Amino acid sequence: MNFVIRAAAIAALFHITPVVVLVKRPDAVQSLLPGADAYTAREVHLSGRDAHRLHEAVDWSPEDGVVVFYAGTAGSTAVGALEFVRVDTPHGPIEVAVGFTPQGAVRGVVVTKATVEMKPWVLEAVAAGLTDHYRGLKPGGEAPGGAAGIASRVGSLAAYVAGEVDKGVARALAAYGAFYNHVRA
Amino acid sequence: MLYDLRRADVRIKWLVTGLLATLGLSYLFGAVMVALYAGFTPQSVAATYAGPEMSMAMPPETTMVVQRPMSMADFAGPEVHTVDTNLLIQDTHVHVPMYGLIAAALGVVVAGLSLPRRRALGLIGLLFAAPWLDFAGMWLTKLASPRFAIVTLAGGWAMAVAYLVVAALAVHQMWVSPERG
């Protein structure tokens, strides 16, 4: 019986719950590229060397070695670009949308997906103003510090998930800085 | 036989009924979860487990860019829930022991049924084989070919059928036609 109880406890502890959509992608796009009426997907297929460089910098290998930026324009005016970055955690994946202004600064961050288990932690962190801490960050500048910024106002699990969002923003910044404007189509 | 659910004390019958009802509820929600995240067709299961890893290309010599126009509708397109290798390792580690315990619990129920020995052995074999098929299908779909998604579907249906057979026989023998005296 002891074995059964321990097995059930381990299963409950390590079980990854399904991913749920917190903010639909179109809503995230409208929020991060306000006013845009045309969009372009810019798929950067990384060479082995660049993929290794990115991995060394932010401990991240994008899926299939492809980083996708979505650029938005309003008429002939650039509105900015955004990335959807996935962060794998022991509790399952989260997805973070990071939007940039045409000048290359972070315009905003939206957590678009999380597991059922992490959803309340994400909502608590966001309600505490997590995403405000990323605004204005630029590639190569200050590291994302959302988790530290809200640590005193939230529980430990919300602070933990904020650290994972920090990772997503750091990855988006590294990819944007290295590949958005420096590789020509 | 010492252990016979037909003649068992009503407390044992009540315990087995509670176990079957609880497992039935979890199976029901398991089916809803499969419908939400993987689907019941070989194509949808293959899309969940095979993922992009099946068609992974070599990285280019130099980093290159491909651009294409997007519409808002493209952002809203259906997204396929995928299970990558790391997640499947974790899922296997967690689910297989639990499936084993569930099969064992149902197997204990089968041992108390009035069934010919061969049928009982076959039913217990099916209880354990079904989760093996389920996970073998997932791994084969990921590592060998998306065509093996059918094995996962077969495993899932086998689990459902085995549960229903055990539950129907147990309820019938315990409550509908228990042995008198």
Can you tell me the overall shape of chain B? elongated
Per DSSP, what share of the residues of chain B sits in E-state strands of 2 or more residues? under 5%
Major pleated sheet of chain A:
6 strands, antiparallel
State the low-pLDDT regions of chain B, or none. none
So what's the overall shape of chain A? globular
Bin the helical content of chain B.
55-70%
State the assembly state of the protein chains. heterodimer
Structural features, described:
The complex is a heterodimer of chains A (185) and B (181). Chain A is α+β, with helices and mostly antiparallel strands and 185 residues long. Chain A has one domain: Sufe protein. Chain: A, CATH 3.90.1010.10. Chain A has six helices and six strands. Chain A has helices at residues 2-14, 25-32, 48-58, 119-127, 146-150, 156-180, and strands at residues 19-21, 38-45, 66-74, 77-89, 92-100, 106-115. A six-stranded antiparallel beta sheet of chain A has the order 1-6-5-4-3-2, with helices on both faces. In chain A, helix 4 crosses helix 6. Chain A starts with a helix and ends in a 5-residue tail after the last helix. Chain B is mainly α and 181 residues long. In chain B, helix 2 crosses helix 6 (149-176) and helix 4 packs antiparallel against helix 5 (117-143). The mean pLDDT of chain B is 89. Chains A and B meet through helix 1, helix 2, strand 2 and helix 3 of A and helix 1, strand 1, helix 3 and helix 4 of B. Strand 2 (38-45) of chain A pairs antiparallel with strand 1 of chain B, so a sheet runs across the interface.
Defining key terms:
heterodimer; A: 185 residues; alpha+beta; Sufe protein. Chain: A; six-stranded antiparallel beta sheet; 28% strand; B: 181 residues; mainly alpha; 6 helices; 4% strand; elongated
